Each structure stands twice: as C-alpha cells, then as structure tokens.
Amino acid sequence: MISRPLNCTSLSLSLSQVTHTVSEILREKNRSKMSDVNHQRIKTNGIWIHVAQKGTGPLVLLLHGFPELWYSWRHQINFLADHGYHVVAPDLRGYGDSDSPISASSYTVFHIVGDLIGLIDHFGEEKAFIVGSDWGAIVGWRISLFRPDRVRGLVSLSVPYSPRSPSPSTKSFKQKFGDGCHIIQFQEPGRAERAFARYDYLTVMKKFMLVTDQVFLAPPDMEMIDYLETPWSLPSWITEEELQVFAEKYEESGFTGPLNYYRAMDLNWELLAPWQDAKIVVPTKYIVGDRDIGFEVFGTKDYVNSDVFKSFVPNLEVVIIPDGHHFIQQEKPQQISEEILSFLSKQSVDL
Questions:
Q1: Annotated catalytic sites, by residue?
Q2: What is the pTM of this model?
C-alpha cells in the first residue's frame, strides 16, 4: 500500500466547506423555528408597539439598537424560549412596525421606558429581565435606573452605563470628537435622511451593520454615510437575505424615527438632572466585543475596566468578547445567547 502525502490545501478547503455547510444547516434550522414566533401590536403609553414573542416562563425583553429591528434578536429568541423563558422583542417606537411619533421630543428615554413598562403590564408581570444592545442598552440602563422595582436583571451589550455629564450630551461629543461624529451629524432634522437617500436601503444596512475597523468619525465636510465603506463580500454571520429583511422594513418606515433618538439626547440630559450621580442597583451583566466601535478610541476599554464604572454599577459582571464587534448578538449568536442565559439562570434561582 502506497501512502500519499496529506494535501493541506485540500484539507483546508474541505474544513472550510464543512464549516460553511454547518452554518447553513444551523441558519436553516433557526429560520424554520422563526415561523413559530408570534407577532402582535400592543397599545402602550399611547402608541402601538409591534412585538415578536415566543416561549413561556419569566419575561425577557430584548431591546435592539440602531439601525436594527426586533429581527436582530432572531437567534436569541429561539434559544431563550427553548430554555424556558417568555421572550419578547419589540420594534422600539419609531422603528419597523411600531408607531413613529413625528416630534423628536417624543423619543426621550422616559418615553421609551414608559413603552416598556406598558409592555410588562400588558403581559401581567411584575418584573422582567431586560437585555439591550446599542440604543437598547441605553434604554436598559434607564429603565433600571428609573424603575428598579420592575427589573429582575439587566444584560447590556456594547454600551456601558454613563452617568449624566456636566454639560449637554451633544456639546460633550462635539468637544471630544468634532463635527464628524455621527451623533453630531444626526442632530439636524433631514440632514442624515438626505444623505442616506443617495444609496439604496440594502447598501445603507451594509455600511452600518458590517462596519468593523472604521470608527464613526467622518473627515471634515463629509457625511458619515459617505465615509463608511460598503463591503465587497459578506461575513459568515449574516446573509444577503437577512440584511434584506432590515432594508425592506426601513424602506417602509424610513429613518426619521430612529434618528430622533439622537435628536432627543440633549432633552434627555435636561430631564435626567434629578438622577445626577445615581447608581444602577439591579444585578447587571455587561458584554462588549474587544473590536467594538470605539472600544479603544472612545475610551470604552479603560472605562469598563475602571473602578468608576463599578462604583456606578455595584452589582456588575463584565465580559469582554475576543474579536467581537458592535452587532455582537448577530455576529456571535451562540456565545452571546449562552452568556445571556447564564445570567438569567443565576437570577432565576430566586424566582
């Protein structure tokens, strides 16, 4: 018998093909399970909020960020429901199939928290677990601050808790990062919408959701959307079909509602004065990828590892995910789902 040398190139290709096949099988399995997700619109806080829900057990609210939808949590909905939780993922006000009030002043964190309290009441629960990413994380911090009596525990992805700054939010960001910061560019009504309109909706989704090494700081006299690159190929964690789900919904609802969250930031700052230096007292787990947007540049790394962060959030666990980016619950769905479940399980012992 003549043995032949191992062809490493062929082996590498074969493993790559197997990995791709396994990913496709898992994605197809998850897609089929999404058909079991129940959708409804619920009247809360004077508006209608669309929710996707599945499962029975302790209530878990999954809060998305910008520019996302309930669909950002498609992996976690199935996973958590399968492990004994009633999972509810809303389109936050202004997004997707939820109502979108016209005025930017209707998008303060107080409005969003009011919407969530109404959802918790609707489902007949005294308390809920809150899991939020990006703007959903900000809202998660605020509902934990305003109504700790209604929160069993908080899991925050990407955005850490920030106590009220000495000066208005946009002034602070402009001083630190200049006019090229996306937060500053999004302030003027209509500006970002006009810039986004130069591209089709799928391209806008790709520019924002697939960003890796770019920081949201555009050069002078350049719009953020023009600055962000459009990837030539997709990463393994998302498909064109999945991106199209976001694109089609934004084509229906537009970007003004989501952008109004940024336009209400200074109003938030004014209204948050009574909670100056207040602490988050609910059990909390903070998860961030070490390649998240601004993790190094915006100082997130130093802050989350500091005693200052822990002084404002005493009951805190910090998890830093290697090679994790901003939309981490989609990028690393199994790992993030398990991190969330481990936290919920610890807190559920006391239920």
A1: 134, 262, 326
A2: 0.91
